[in-house]
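Supplementary Data S3. Sequence and C-alpha cells for construct A.
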Amino acid sequence: MNAARACILALMMCWAFAAFADVAVPPLSGRVVDQTGTLSSGDIAALTQTLKDLETRKGSQVTVLIVPTTAPETIEQFSIRVAAAWKVGRKKIDDGAILVVAKNDRKLRIEVGYGLEGALNDVTAKRIIDEVITPKFRNGDLAGGISAGIDRIVGVIDGEPLPVPRQESSGLLNHIDPLNPFALFALFVVGAILRATLGRLIGSAATGGMVGVLAWFIAGSLAASLILGVIAFILTMFGETIASSGGGGTYSGSSSSSDRGGFSGGGGGFGGGGASGSW
C-alpha cells in the first residue's frame, strides 16, 4: 500500500514539474520557424526570400518564430532564450532581430541585437508592433501582420549603416556547375595533354593547380580555389575510370526552396533590446 502511494506521489510530482517546465527552444531550421501551422508554404517562402535578400544586401539576419505558448515564462524571458540559442546576426556586429509570436497567448515580441539598437530601438520596435502588426492580428490576419511587420523591420534595417556583407567563399562555387559539359570537355582536354606530357600523377596535379590558380584570380578566395583544384585533380586522375563505369548516377539541380540546404545564425549577440505587445 505504501509502495502504491509512493508511486502515485511520484507521478503527480512528475506531472507538476512537466506543467511548469520551460518551453524548449526549437532548432533554427530556417529563417521562418512556424510550430503552429499558421503560415502557408507560400507565406513561408515569401518571407524567407525577403529575409534572405536582406542578408545578402545588408548582412543582417532576421528570423520569425511562431509558437503556441511561452508559458510558464513571459514572452520576454522566452525570446531572450531563443536569441541566445539561435545567435542570429553577424558575430561582433550583432545585427540580428527575431520576431517571436506566441499565438495562443496572443503575445508577440521583436528581439533586437546590440548592433541594430540604434535604428531598430525600443520605441521603433514598439511602433511597428502597435501600428503595423497587431491591427492585422486583431482582424485574424496573422500572416498579413507578420509580413507587414517584417517589411517594416527590413525597411528600418536598410536605413542603418552596417558593415558591407563579406562575400562567402562558396560564392564562386554557387555559380559554377562542375558538371557543365563545356567545362568538363576543356578540363579533360587540358588534363589529357598534361598527363601525356608529365605522367598521370604529375599531370593531374598540374591540372588541379592550374584550375586552382584560375579560381583564385576569378574569386579571390583561397577556399574556393583549393576546392576546385582538388575537384580538377580527381577528375583528371580518375576521369577515365568514372566515365567507363557510367558515372554512378544522375545529377539533379539544387532545390528552389530558399532555406533548403541549411541556415544558421552568425554568432550575433542580444542584450534584451526590443519591444513586446499583445492583441
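Construct B, processed identically:
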Amino acid sequence: MKEVTGGVCAPKGFKASGVHCGIRKNKEKKDLALIVSETVASAAGVYTTNLVQGAPIKVTRDNISDGTAQAIICNSGNANTCNSNGIEIAEAMCKLVEKHTGIKSSDVIVASTGVIGQPLDIEPIEKGMDELVKALGDNSADANEAIMTTDTVRKEIAVEFEIEGKTCRIGGIAKGSGMIHPNMATMLVFLTSDVAISPIMLKKALLSDVVKSFNMLSVDGDTSTNDMLMVMANGCAGNTLIEEEGDAYTKFCSALAYITSNLCRKIAKDGEGATKLLECRVTHAINDKEAKRIAKSVITSSLLKAAMFGADANWGRVLCAIGYSGAKVDVDKIDVSFKSRAGSIAVCKNGAGIEFDEDVAKQVLLEDEIVIQVDCNDGKGDATAWGCDLTYDYVKINGDYRT
C-alpha cells in the first residue's frame, strides 16, 4: 500500500469540483462542492448521534437506504439545521444535481456545514450549478476547500493497493476543526473507492472502522448536528465483487483504516486554535474496550489539554482522567510517558511519580505532535485516540463564530 495524490479523484471513475456560489460573503472562499462517480456506486454512511440533526442527514439517509449513490453535493457557510424549509432545500440540492448531470436525485448524498439556524436560500446554489458541473475534473482540492469552515488547512489523502492483481484506490477529503467529539466525531468526511464491494460489506467495513478511527477523535467535547462520514465504491478497479470476508475484504479494510486514521490526525492537528496534535496510545489494558475508554478520557481532559498547551509535564492530569474514565483499570500498575520528535521521557511508574528532568520534559512537550503513552500493564487491550491542546485562540474563534 502506498500513498498517491488526487484525494477523492484518485480512484478510477470519480471527478470533483468546488466553487464560490455566494452562500459565503467572502468571494475568496469556495462554498459549494460536488463529487460524482461515472457509475452508480455502493454507498454507506455514519452520522452524528446528536438528537438535533441537519436536514441533509435525513435526506441522505433516505437516498442511500438502498445502499447506492452516485454523487455528493455539499455547501459550507450554512448548516441547514433547525430551518422550517430545511428538507425542502436539501431535496432541492439533490434535484439540481439531477438537472445538471442526469444523475437521479435519489442517488445523491447531500451535506451542509456552517452556522446553525440561519435560513438557507437555494438561489445561490442554483446559480452556481453550471460553473460547478463545468469544473468537474481532477479537482479534489477545490472540493475540499469548498467544505471547509474554520479549518485552516485542506485535509485529503489517497492510497493505492492491490486486490487479485488489480490496482485499487481509496481517496478521501475531510473538514473538521471545531465541535469535534466521539460518537460520532464532528466533521464531514467523503471517501471514494474504485473497489468492487457490495453495499452490505461496505457498510460492515465502515462501521467496524469508525469505532477505532473517528469515534476516537475529539477537539472540544461538542458533537455537532451535521456530521457524516460517507463512502462510495464504484467497482471501476475491476476486482471480483467483495461479498464476504476474506483476503480481499481484509485488504480493503486495511486501506480504509490507513485513510481514516490519517484524516483523524489531520482533523485533530487542525483543531480550532490548536498548536499541537495529541495522540494517546494505551497499551496492555484489560481489553480493547477498556483501552478505548482510557484513551478517550485522557484526550478529552480540558486540564490535560491546557497543560499540553503550556508544555507542562503534569502527568497527574493523565492519571486523573483515567480515574474518572469508568474503565476497569488497576491504577497502581499504570506507567505514563510523553514522546515527541524531541525525545521521550517517563513521568509515572506504577501509578506514582518518578524523578525526571523538567527541562527535558519541556523540550519534549514544546513539539507540535505529542504522544501520551499509557501502559496499563494488565492485559492485551490497546487503543489510540487523537485530540489537540486547548488554547486562548479556541475561545476567540468561538466567541464570535456567528457574528
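Residues 297 and 325 are 5 Å apart (CA to CA). The longest strand covers residues 32-47.
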